[in-house]
Amino acid sequence: MERRDVPNSAFDYYSLNREAFLEGLKNFLRIPSVSTLPEHKSDVRRAAEFVAGELRAMGMATVELIEGKAGEHPLVYGEWLEAPGKPTVLIYGHYDVQPPDPLDEWKTPPFEPAVRGENIYARGAVDDKGQTYLLLKAVEGYLKGEGRLPVNVKFLIEGEEEVGGGNIDDYVTHHAERLKADVALVCDTEMFARDLPTLTTGLRGLVYTEVQARGAAQDLHSGLYGGAAPNPFQALAEIIAALKGPDGKIRIPGFYKRVKAPDREELAAWERLPFKEKEFLKKEVGAAALSGEKRFSVLERIWARPTFEVHGFRGGFTGEGAKTVIPAVATAKISMRLVPEMDPREVLRQFTAAVKKATPKGIRTTVRAISISSPTLVSTENAYVHAAREALERVFRKKTVYMRSGGSIPIVGLFGRHLRAPCVLMGFGLPDDRLHSPNEKFHLPNFYRGIEAVGHYFEILGTMTAGSAVHAHAKHGE
Amino acid sequence: MERRDVPNSAFDYYSLNREAFLEGLKNFLRIPSVSTLPEHKSDVRRAAEFVAGELRAMGMATVELIEGKAGEHPLVYGEWLEAPGKPTVLIYGHYDVQPPDPLDEWKTPPFEPAVRGENIYARGAVDDKGQTYLLLKAVEGYLKGEGRLPVNVKFLIEGEEEVGGGNIDDYVTHHAERLKADVALVCDTEMFARDLPTLTTGLRGLVYTEVQARGAAQDLHSGLYGGAAPNPFQALAEIIAALKGPDGKIRIPGFYKRVKAPDREELAAWERLPFKEKEFLKKEVGAAALSGEKRFSVLERIWARPTFEVHGFRGGFTGEGAKTVIPAVATAKISMRLVPEMDPREVLRQFTAAVKKATPKGIRTTVRAISISSPTLVSTENAYVHAAREALERVFRKKTVYMRSGGSIPIVGLFGRHLRAPCVLMGFGLPDDRLHSPNEKFHLPNFYRGIEAVGHYFEILGTMTAGSAVHAHAKHGE
To answer: Is A227 an interface residue toward B (CB < 8 Å)?
Structure first.
């Protein structure tokens, strides 16, 4: 081996190992760790072991899988705490992914990562395996290139983000002391636009439910009983139409009462973002028109307004052809996104009451919560966020912008509540990455820039003293 | 073999072969001839061959499978025309069945016929394999017991009744001369109550559609796009709620304009039927309450009023857990039952226009017709219907009642239109037979009484001369 191939800094290591990083990412992406599907349980565990193996190989001092209750997916924990007096960074990512369906819309199979142009295509490419893997590689660069890190690091990588599982909640709640950190670094968000370094300052919460409607005691022939027997699908349609109007307004009593609008300054900053509604419609959505509340801008609608969405119906007949059945039972999956300062438990109660009220005669409905999380707002006024801005600007050479995300990352509220550490949401996804959709991708230049940006972030934090920053804690909806 | 075991009449043959008939029926029921599911195509053919084999074995002079277009299921045709001067009976049944799902609600598997108490349980037990098989056995009794039939017989047994296929339409339209008969005997209906001999005089028509709604160009993440991207499920819910109100009224412009109410005499006859709404609700439907148009009686609602029913939704996510997707495309299966004198093609146009009108901005909808058929009314004022009453009364020893059915048997309108023969709808199902539902059954005493009643019908018709009855032709909606 020639001398020039031996890295003597993290950044040397990064530039010498780009191919190895890509191969490693592909191996991670090949594991179909779909946390919501029971048939993938062993794959999810395989992904956890993959992450733990990476942490061990790079030289983290302590690495362990933290098991939850039966049926839960393990947390991967790793720590390296040999930088006394320096800040401690709690690093979060998740190794689980969304289901890949509809499968037939993928150009290449979702768990056979394919590089086309500057992108890598696979389920989880950006959400969140690609972004979790870049965190691993950023740390590896220091440990392998310099033998040490400029800061203390704790990894907490979960496998239930996409399913809203309770393992991480329990662990964070009961082990706040072990997870104690000066800042939490979450890499599960996106950039506002290509080449525009971005920090995310707000996330929506989520109340995801299943509404079951029951009519007759058994499926009935729609000829023999149609006109007199209640139809659970008709009931669900009436309930859904009653709870959200064509104007996009959600008609659940009390639903909007705690909604806190963004302040003028934040709205003005959004106005300055390079956002074109027509391009958003054409390139990202691709529908005939946008929908929603007309008196709010599109960015307000997706970042600062709550939603009501139907994700699927179960029951009856969905095969080819005609089956004339009035099903006994039908189910709708309905979720609501919440914005500061809405309370998910209160929303669940309001929703349940509104469903009951809209349920027609002859039908009995029940509401089951599958996943709930609080909305969060992250303060930008602290040294850890300022350091993150600087790190991003060193790599991207542009001014960092602040945006919110309409998505939900339950952990952020949890960290704010239990660890009292500020949360830095540094993400490298792009708006057209199609997370949760077929042909999900990650822009490979962002994969490499992400590694470097996190490397710079550690370097800058390494110039600071533990506990030196004024902690402006995360604000959140509960 | 002792002398007393050799039948010397059809009725002897019937009583000596009850066990063999039951075994034969079980063999027929074991064939999963689900016409709407492509994966059962070969099973459907197997059922056609089973019927043809039975016709050959009993000694029908001509037996053939009539193939339709590629992908269609064959008709089984058989004839025995050696009773010159006597009436010709065209016998109709179908060998295809509805899909068995939901499978987990069956007490025994749908294609493993099981006798419990006086019933046989299987998909198709009553609709229509059991009733088709009793027609075969009634004819077999004469051919095997007496060597000849008192009437001329033509069998036309189809395999696309449950799917509204076009094979029989084409054949009847183009081969009316071959199918020429004095009366058509259809055995695919039910009795009003146990032990109450029944002839059905009206059937509803059907327009079965798939409504597809398209929003975005691909599935979207409901966090990142929820609030601005149109949701096809929300659109379908709004359309469905717009097209049918909670009062049961269908709000499709022009929909009711051709609806012809039953006359006073028919309504008065329905009033005399032993119908108890509470029992119907409790024993047959099993819901908390009935639904529908309050100003019509339950029998009017299911026999003489049109319907609008949702049978299933396709698209999005329906697995366990939470997937936060706004689907690009969603589909609803929606059917309407028609009553005299509604026109299915006109209804399809009205429905399509109403769907378009109720489609919210950002969504494109298309309507596809899967199956359409006309409503029919059968006149009771002819000698062939009177003979059927008498045949039933000989076996059941009670006065025959007339009822309508809310179901659809497309062939009845077709026979009326092209063959100009009166149609006798003699059925032996019971109201709790759960056709199209899990645990479909056939009451075995009715299976045997059905064979005898059809035997008596042939005997009575055999006393008549071909063409002697005044034909009061079937009236129908087109």
So the answer is: yes
Q: What is the mean pLDDT of residues A128-149?
A: 98
What are the structure tokens assigned to B256, written together?
């009711």
Q: Is A284 on the interface with B (CB under 8 A)?
A: yes
Report CA dihedral (A268, A270, A273, A276) to the nearest 10 degrees.
-110
Q: Which residues does chain B have within 8 Å of residue A302's beta carbon, measured at their own beta carbons?
A: 224-228
Mutate to test the interface with A, among B276, B305, B324 (most CBs of A within 10 A): B324
Mutate to test the interface with A, among B121, B224, B366 (most CBs of A within 10 A): B224
A429: three-class secondary structure by DSSP = strand
Residue/partner pairs of A348-357 with CB below 8 Å, 24 or more apart: A348/A207, A348/A209, A348/A372, A350/A252, A350/A253, A350/A254, A350/A255, A351/A207, A351/A209, A351/A243, A351/A252, A351/A255, A353/A253, A354/A242, A354/A243, A354/A251, A354/A252, A354/A253, A355/A211, A355/A239, A355/A243
Give the minimum alpha-carbon distance from B453 to chain A in angstroms, rounded to a whole number.
24
CA distance A4 to chain B (A): 44
Domains of chain A, start order: 3-203+375-476 (3.40.630.10), 205-259+304-372 (3.30.70.360)
Candidates A436, A439, A440, A441: best to mutate against B (most CBs of B within 10 A) is A436
Distance from C-alpha of A459 to C-alpha of A456, rounded to nearest angstrom: 5
Strands (E), A287-429: 309-314, 325-326, 329-338, 364-373, 376-377, 401-405, 423-426
User: A71 touching B, CB under 8 A?
Assistant: no
Looking at beta carbons, which residues of chain A come within 8 Å of B307?
Answer: 222, 226-227
Residue among B230, B233, B333 minimizing CB distance to A317? B333
If one compares A425 and A470, the residue with the highest pLDDT of the two is: A425
ipTM at complex level = 0.86
User: A195-212 in b/e burial notation, b at 16+ Cβ within 10 A?
Assistant: ebbbbbbbbbbbbbbbbb
Q: Is B382 on the interface with A (CB under 8 A)?
A: no
d(CA B121, CA A131): 56
Helix B129-145 × helix B41-58 angle, to 10°:
20
Q: Which burial class, exposed, middle or buried, applies to B1 when counting CB atoms under 10 A from its CB (0-12, 13-18, 19+)?
A: exposed
Distance CA B157, CA B74 (A): 9
Dihedral sign for Cα atoms in the order A23, A24, A25, A27:
positive
Q: How many CB atoms lie within 10 A of CB B263?
A: 9
Q: What is the pLDDT of residues A103-133, one digit of tens each?
A: 999 999 999 999 999 999 999 999 999 999 9
Q: What angle do CA B48, B50, B53 make, to 5 degrees?
A: 110
State the pLDDT at residue B469: 54
Tens of pLDDT, residue by residue over B164-173, are 777 898 999 9
Chain B contact for A305 (CB, 8 A cutoff) = yes
Q: How far apart are the first and last CA of chain A?
A: 57
For residue B166, give Cα distances in angstroms to A69, A398, B169, B171. 56, 66, 5, 9
Contact (CB, 8 A) for B430 and B194: yes
In angstroms, rounded to a whole number, what is the distance separating the alpha carbons of residues B51 and B139?
13
Name every chain B residue with its beta carbon within 8 A of the beta carbon of A337: 222-223, 226-227
Residue B84 forms contact with A (CB below 8 Å): no
Distance in angstroms (rounded) separating the CA atoms of residues A359 and B363: 26
**Residue from the list A99, A221, A224 with its beta carbon closest to the beta carbon of B323:** A99
Contact, A44 vs A33, CB < 8 A? yes
Show residues of chain A in contact with B231, CB under 8 Å.
291, 309-310
Answer for the pair B100, B123: CB distance below 8 angstroms, yes or no: yes
Q: How many CB atoms lie within 10 A of CB B466?
A: 16
8-state DSSP, B206: E
